[in-house]
Amino acid sequence: MRILVTGANGQLGHDVVVQGKKQGLDIIGVDIEDMDIRDDKQVQKVLKSSNAQAVIHCAAYTAVDAAEDNAELCYQINSEGTKNIARICKELNIKLLYISTDYVFNGEGSDPWQEDDLRDPINTYGKAKCEGELAVEKYLNQYFIVRIAWVFGKNGTNFVKTMLNLAKTKDSISVVSDQIGSPTYTVDLSVLLLEMIQSEHYGHYHVTNEGICSWYEFAVEIFRQAKQEVEVIPIDSSQFPTKAKRPHNSRMSKVKLDKQGFKRLPDWKDALKRYLDECLSD
Ligand SMILES: NC(=O)c1ccc[n+]([C@@H]2O[C@H](COP(=O)([O-])OP(=O)(O)OC[C@H]3O[C@@H](n4cnc5c(N)ncnc54)[C@H](OP(=O)(O)O)[C@@H]3O)[C@@H](O)[C@H]2O)c1
């Protein structure tokens, strides 16, 4: 089966291609210079000529705060772009796995979000990704929608890199402690995505590393593992205003993974250790 990965220059897409090649799979990566997902003609041409039987759709507009000022662009890429991918996958009979986000939920309460809970996004990025999910559901009868969160990988900017960079110039860092979720290492995630796309176990999934924490706890663990002496000060979201509203509760149920026989990802602290080793190995 030939697998085509969109957003292959990005944080996740890069590792999906790397892991696929490591496993000896027939996998190719494309990004905006090969196929702008906003252009349906281009999407049709590239998907057709690639002879792909499956698409892992990682391409997206991911600047969550900037999206509040650039809503049109965000919708063009995350909603219309995904609509193009879904429609052409239907036309060419290609299996689709769409990467979505915890931001499709409103972040209220403290229970883990179930895979079939009501979507109620609270910011522009979340709304556009949610429209992407709706397009996949509209055009295809069988598909994978995989919601992920708090992603870190070698080929991108992420919270771990931000913390380590801040530590170069600061002795103390304030980090929000009232947003709870689970970090996700792109390498672990990629392995599961590749297993999933080769299966027939379609549906909605949540995939993150196991265990939950606040961003504050995440930062403390980053500095502990990186052996950096930095004071981390817990603060409320109200003390750290951002352009886009953030969900407080991003706990995600993994029941669907269990039901379909997929193995959950390792604990996030273990994933962080392997990630820091990977970054330091350069
Ligand atoms: N990062 C997270 O914490 C997180 C959390 C939840 C869900 N997700 C989802 O996970 C997926 C991967 O995220 P990521 O962190 O790997 O994002 P990323 O690093 O921003 O990668 C996205 C890639 O898509 C490309 N792209 C943008 N517009 C495009 C277009 N019109 N046509 C084709 N490609 C285009 C980007 O190119 P440019 O860089 O040139 O724009 C980039 O290479 C996304 O669907 C995202 O919504 C991410």
Structure notes:
By secondary structure, this protein is of the alpha/beta class. The protein has helices at residues 11-22, 40-50, 71-91, 124-139, 159-166, 186-197, 215-225, 255-259, 268-280; strands at residues 2-6, 26-30, 54-57, 95-101, 144-148, 151-152, 172-176, 180-181, 184-185, 203-206, 213-214, 231-235. Helix 5 (159-166) packs across helix 7 (215-225). The chain starts with a strand and ends with a helix. The mean pLDDT is 97.
List keywords for this structure.
single chain, 282 residues, alpha/beta, six-stranded parallel β-sheet, binds NADP nicotinamide-adenine-dinucleotide phosphate
Radius of gyration: 18 Å
Q: How much helix is in the residues? A: 25-40%
> What ligands are attached or bound here?
NADP nicotinamide-adenine-dinucleotide phosphate
Ends distance: 33 Å
- Derived from helix and strand composition plus strand pairing, the structural class reads alpha/beta
Helix segment tally: 9
> How many strands?
12
Strand content: 15-25%
Q: What is the average per-residue confidence, as pLDDT, rounded to a whole number? A: 97
Contiguous runs where pLDDT drops below 50 for at least 5 residues: none
Query: Overall 3D geometry?
Result: globular
Largest sheet features: 6 strands, parallel
Strand order of the largest sheet: 2-1-3-4-5-10
Order of helices and strands: EHEHEHEHEEHEEEHEEHEHH
Write a brief caption for the model.
The chain is α/β, with parallel strands linked by helices and 282 residues long. The protein has nine helices and twelve strands.
